[in-house]
Amino acid sequence: MSNEYKVSVVVLVYNTEYYLEDCLDSLINQTLEDMEIICVNDESTDNSLNILKQYARKYDNITIIDQKNQGGAVAGNNGLKIAKGEYVAIIDSDDIVVEDAYEKLYNKAKETDSDIVAGKPVKYVSGIQREITFSHDIWEEERTFTVDEFKDIYYDVFYWNKIYRRKLVEEHDIYMIPGKIYADVPLVFRAYSFADKISIIPDVVYYWRRRAQEDIIKGNSDTSVSKSLQDISNMKDRLSTFYYVKEYFAEAGIEKYFNYAIKTYMERFFYPIRGILQDDTFKWEYLKEIKVILSNIDDLYDNDLDKRYNIFFYFILNDMDKELENFLNFELFERSTVTRDGKVYWNIKYFDNPEYNIPDELFEIKKIEDNFIDIEDISSDSKYIYFNNISFPQNIAIKEVKVSLRGLTKIETLKINNIYEFKLDEIDNHVYSGKVKIEDIRNINIFDVHLKVTYSNDNYELFRVKERLFEKNKNDIIKLNKNKYLLFHFTHLGNFSIVNGYCRNFFKYHVDNRAMTLIPQSSGATRYKIAVIYKYDQVYFTNVDTSSKIRLKNELELIWKYSLDENTKYNLFIKTKFFTIKLMKDAFVDFKEQTVDYNGKKIRIFEDSDGSIAILLK
Q: At 555, is the pLDDT very low, low, confident or very high (cuts 50, 70, 90)?
């Protein structure tokens, strides 16, 4: 078997004309040399094929397979079978690969002689990076291992954030199952099963584009491969993964790991469960299929899943359909707990109730879950944000709790530069409070608010702060914000965010006879705009260098020629999605009034009577 390339990338293409160029650009600009790009068009009905042909004419390392519509699994297999790279990768054509991803993955593969190398993926939603959060952050540190040494690798079920040795793929038939919608997990688990050595790098390598949720639920095939969660054939396809994976583990002689691996995937079997509330036929088919699966898992209740899944299991295995429906409708987010003999239990109506006779241990809380976090409130004043009385189950061994503010970050910016974390104090047994100095949040942005809980074994989890975790309602929480530069905000999903517009000593600046340049003193992402405004007339500063791949300084400039009318006083404003406020003198480092010559006139930059910054051409 000859290797003509270091890496062959198979791109699955079906009706992605709006995103395809972004994907292809990310591949042709890879820093790794000797790459092959194989684009498999699955009979797209939009302009995707024409876009592929344009790129193939320009780049000789791009090959197009134009096949009759047979589904993504067949498309992926057809691409893999003509690949000539030492390693192969499969990606979706609406996603984006980080420009140095394949260089890092390939170098790690050669350094460690690994069969598989995986990197960190992030979600990409409306131009913003969003983290993929699991209770096991397997991408946090670099490691090389066998499956025996690190079984948590099974939490990474994605096929597109990895490279695979082509010899491994060909010798062990590591291909997708034709006709199967959810073909990714069987492929990935089969690859793990036969790999001698696997490596992980902590670098972000892949942007997984997540499109509008309503398109996924509706099963709009023009915008998403995912089908309706209430479709019976789709549901059966999802559940069939159990049988394929079980067969693969037996074939590889590692049946002892099957139970662990399938439990890492178990949540996905329950994505369609709410369909039983909508349709009796779906209900009958789903409960029949899932009951067989649950009956074939050893030590079913010994798992790391949220508590509700054990209740699902019990109701399904004991044909308690009515109780299951009531649980889904009324009890799923019940937050009450009770402590007995040092153990904490979920205190819902089924617990310790002879009418249902469910074993108490199924309700025992052994890990932190959203349901069991309680927040009295979050408030602010002119200097601080206060996090008040955040309580956790008392039987969980906690080392520390931090507030983690994670700023919305565009694709061209390093996310790590936009995360701020602050330790909370334990003021009572498993009750935490603390305050965050607003000026320590060194960027103007929208921050998703998380709680970062580190356990006694130094592992940690991130918990998104949500409306249902508060003792007060969201309107009361919003009113507790007393800082004019902040905004407390709840999304339509109930997630809590803080918009920060505070910018003391935030900018340096430079003026000359061409322009005014602002230099932010933060290396985080730009999630604001700067404008000069007079009444209804406004002109925005623009980025100094829009060609740079990663702009750490986010410098902005206002070119005089296009911006100012004579004898009109403009004020500087900062604008976010949620508010517009004047830029005050203290937003600048050592602001001094300046006057510059411009076409025989004078431009004056000065402090206005209210302390804001003004510009006047005269």
A: confident
The predicted-structure confidence for 102-139, as pLDDT tens digits, reads as follows 999 999 999 999 999 999 999 888 777 888 776 667 89
Could you read off the pLDDT of 426-465 as tens digits, one per residue? 999 999 999 999 989 988 888 999 999 999 988 889 999 9
Distance in angstroms (rounded) separating the CA atoms of residues 66 and 551:
38
Burial 558-576, CB ≥16 within 10 A → b, else e: bebeebbeeeeebbbbbbb
Model confidence pLDDT, tens digit, residues 221-236: 444 433 456 789 999 9
pTM: 0.85
The DSSP 8-state label assigned to residue 241 in this structure reads: H
CA 436, CA 450: separation in Å to the nearest integer?
14
H or E stretch covering 464: strand 460-464
Residues 9-21 pLDDT 10s: 999 999 999 999 9
Tell me the residue ranges of DSSP E strands in 456-551.
460-464, 486-490, 496-500, 507-511, 515-520, 529-534, 537-540, 542-543
Evaluate whether 17 touches 47 at the Cβ level (below 8 Å): yes
Cα separation, 134 vs 114, in Å, equals: 24
Enumerate the β-bridge partners of residue 480: none
Reported for 306-312, long-range contacts at CB under 8 A and 24+ positions apart, including other chains, are 306/369, 306/371, 307/346, 307/362, 307/363, 307/365, 307/369, 307/371, 308/332, 308/371, 309/266, 309/267, 309/270, 310/362, 311/350, 311/358, 311/362, 311/363, 312/270, 312/273
Residues contacting residue 127 through CB under 8 Å, at least 6 positions apart: 410, 411
Residue range 294-316: average pLDDT?
Answer: 95
Residue at 110: amino acid letter: K
CA distance 325 to 277: 7
Cα–Cα distance, 18 to 473 (Å, whole number):
40
N- to C-terminal Cα separation, the chain: 75
Residues 6+ apart with CB under 8 A from 181: 71, 225, 226, 227, 234, 237, 238
Tell me how far apart the alpha carbons of residues 449 and 405 are, in angstroms, rounded to a whole number: 5
Instruction: Enter the DSSP assignment of 511.
Output: E
φ and ψ at residue 289, rounded to 5 degrees: -70, -45
Structure tokens at 12: 């699955």
Q: In the prediction, which pLDDT does 135 show? A: 63
Is there a contact between 614 and 571 (Cβ–Cβ < 8 Å)? yes
Stretch 504-529: mean pLDDT: 84
Phi, psi of 356 (to 5 degrees): -110, -30
- What the block records as the tokens of 470 is 């508060």
Token pair for 84: 């000539």
d(CA 406, CA 85): 38
Instruction: Name the E strands within 260-326.
Output: none
Pairing label, strands 374-380, 486-490: unpaired
CB atoms within 10 A of CB 423: 14
- 3-state percent helix, strand, coil for the chain, nearest multiple of 5: 30, 35, 40
Residue from 374, 379, 377, 403 nearest 391 by CA = 374
